[in-house]
Each structure stands twice: as C-alpha cells, then as structure tokens.
Amino acid sequence: MIPDTGYHTGVVSGCGGTLAGNFFTTGAVTADCSVTSSFAIDTFSLDVKKTGSGAGKITSDVEGIDCEGECSEIYDYGTEVILTAVPVDGSTFKGWSGDCTGSDPVCTVTVDQEKSVTAEFYAFPWDLFVPAITRGSAP
After folding, report:
1. Which of 9, 25, 79, 93 could bridge 75 with an S-S bond, Cβ 3.0-4.6 Å?
2. pLDDT (tens digit, 9 = 90+) per residue, 78-120?
3. For 32-60, how does the pLDDT look when each residue is reduced to its tens digit (9 = 90+)?
4. Does domain 43-125 have CATH number 2.40.10.10?
C-alpha cells in the first residue's frame, strides 16, 4: 500500500495479517477473507516566535496562531496559513525569517513539513531622542 503524498497508512486488518510499514502480509488464506485499510492525513507543526527590541503579536487567518512570544500549532498537510505581524504602538515590524522572508507584515506558509517562522519587531528609542529634540526649543 502506498498512501498519497501527505497521508500515511492508518489501520489495516483482516485475514490474520500483519502490517509492517506500508506492507501488509496476510496469514494463510484457506477461505474467502477481506482486508480493510484506512489512511490518515499527515500533520505538521508550525512554530512561531517573536524577536527584537519591539513588541507585537503574530496572528493567523486559520485558528491556532495568536501570540506575543512563542507559540506552535499543528496543521494538516497542505494547509495554507496566512500569518500577520501586528506591532504595538511604538514598535515597527522589521521582517520575517525562517520559512517566511521579507518585510511585508503578511506572509503565507504552506504546511507540508515542519515549519518555523520568526517575526522581528523593532522599538524606536523615543525616550532617548525626544528630550534631545525638544531641548532648547522656544515655548
């Protein structure tokens, strides 16, 4: 038995047989007997984490990812997950790394194996610059 891509052999039974990997061997067949089998979809983890000096969260269009630090969700083979990086006030989204790349805050990941994505947020140090900018200005 060879399952389609993205699936694996689930349960196989009948005729006193045994399953080893994708191979089912019947026992001695001395009369009519039936073999039944089932297949199940593969599942994989999508791991997401946030790095950088800024703050923000990562959300997904399908249920599962909504975090401000590290999170992980299991998806069926072939699921397309649209991730969105959402910075908080005072922070900016810098970019993706891992199985997403670029600086667009929206990224699509096809979960066809284990996937890992990192979102980097940057915080501008306003507390260091505002006093220097406003110092000496006329009221």
Report:
1. 79
2. 999 999 999 999 899 999 999 999 999 999 999 999 999 999 9
3. 999 888 889 999 999 999 999 999 999 99
4. no
Q: Taking a C-beta distance cutoff of 8 angstroms, is the pair 17, 24 a contact?
A: yes
| Cα–Cα distance for residue pair 10/15, rounded to 1 Å | 17
Report how far residue 96's alpha carbon sits from residue 70's, in angstroms, rounded to the nearest whole number. 14
CA–CA gap between residue 23 and residue 28 (Å, rounded): 16
Please give the model's pTM, rounded to 2 decimal places.
Answer: 0.78
In the chain, domain spans: 7-41, 43-125
Contact 103, 120 (CB under 8 A): no
